[in-house]
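Appendix B, example 12.
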Amino acid sequence: MRLTLRQWQVFVSVADAGSTAAAGVRLQLSQSATSAALNELEGQLPEPLFDRIGRRLVLNPAGRALLDPARALLVAATELEGQAGVGQAGTAGVLPLNLRIGASTTIGNYLLPGRVAALLAANPQAQVDLRIGNSADVVAAVQRLEVDLGLIEGPCHESGLEVLPWQRDALVIVAAAAAPLPDVVDVAALAGARWLLREPGSGTREAVEQALLPHLHHFARAMQLGSTEAIKQAAAAGLGLACLSRHAVADLVALGTLRILHTPLPPLSRQLWVVRHPGKRVPPPLAALLDLPPAVFASG
């Protein structure tokens, strides 16, 4: 084999870092060694992988075409080392379970902790790296093969990824417990209210728009906040109405600072999704953690 894993590792690091100097820091190599490895790789290919713009290296079409396969190759090599017993072993020579999950905020904060706790109780040596961000962040992490699997609250619009419905999540409209609202809030009152919304790119924002705008047509007034927790606290303080997962508001509803509003709207819910890079194998314990059928994402 003429091309080496080290060369592909340098290629991926330069693509992520934007320069051989920054990539060398990540790889603990000198800039000259990093540049030499990249030059050796490009010298064996029909065309360069980067455009040189000043001191920066920017992927060209040839480089973009090879980036995801290169990431998949490096992940597969790491997994092969693990299966061969390279690296630290757990008790009695058994390799410790190490899972990397990307989850959008509601899923990561409210739906996964109980599942992860049960897994760790049954597997004390296991390690779980849970990366939480908005849905766009999670999809990007899946694309970069930084996580084994992603769980998001809105549809995935990126091509080249495998997407599977996971479970449905009930949405409720909430307001401050002391808000002067009737037992049943009509559509006109909902349309004229101030709505507390997540930022664009959030699965919660997209789900709320899909659930409410067919009935309200537009949000007459809106306030944008950067997290579900911020929205909950703002709603409890009387700043407006919010449409959130029932799981997310259960604590403040139980404390009596938020109340769920009754409306003439049909029951609201959204689909939660599992997202996987086709080059990434899903560890069976992760499939079991998420109650995925054994045949789902079996290849990779």
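The chain has three domains: 5-83, 94-166+272-289, 168-268. The longest strand covers residues 162-176.
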